[in-house]
Design goal:
By secondary structure, the chain is mainly alpha-helical. It folds into 2 domains: 1-50, no CATH class; 52-114, no CATH class. Helices cover 42% and strands 8% of the residues. The protein has 5 helices and 3 strands. A 3-stranded antiparallel beta sheet has the order 1-2-3. The radius of gyration is 17 Å and the shape is globular. Residues 7-114 form the Aminotransferase-like plant mobile domain.
Length: 114
């Protein structure tokens, strides 16, 4: 729960116009090294990307965040998300993490935004 309060405190202090956090001690910017430490992804060496496969992506999202995106049903427009979700979908399902959420639920909310 402490991590959730810390995350809320940081989001309240984020300034999109400068891409930084404004804290009592001054301004703080997130660096690539910070992201590497948080996500445990390497920042040196070969890129992690490869071929993007769009089949089965809805089930993969459901495995990661617990909610499967609805299939595209518009008859005249092409699906704008052939292998991912729209931010509006993330906001619809993960806008506010419940106050009494278990650590697993908090992890799913964080994963949805990452």
């Amino acid at each position: 729960m402490v991590e959730l309060h810390g995350l809320i405190a940081l989001t309240d202090r984020w300034r999109p116009e400068t891409h930084s956090f404004h804290l009592a001690l001054g301004e703080m910017t997130i660096t690539l090294e910070d992201i590497a430490m948080i996500t445990r992804l390497p920042i040196e060496g070969r890129a992690l990307t490869g071929k993007v496969r769009s089949d089965g992506w809805r089930q993969w999202i459901a495995t990661l965040v617990g909610v499967e995106p609805e299939p595209w049903t518009h008859e005249t427009r092409k699906d704008p998300r052939p292998s991912g979700v729209l931010f509006s979908w993330i906001q619809k399902h993960f806008r506010r993490c419940p106050k009494d959420a278990s650590s697993g639920v908090v992890e799913r909310y964080a994963r949805a935004y990452l």
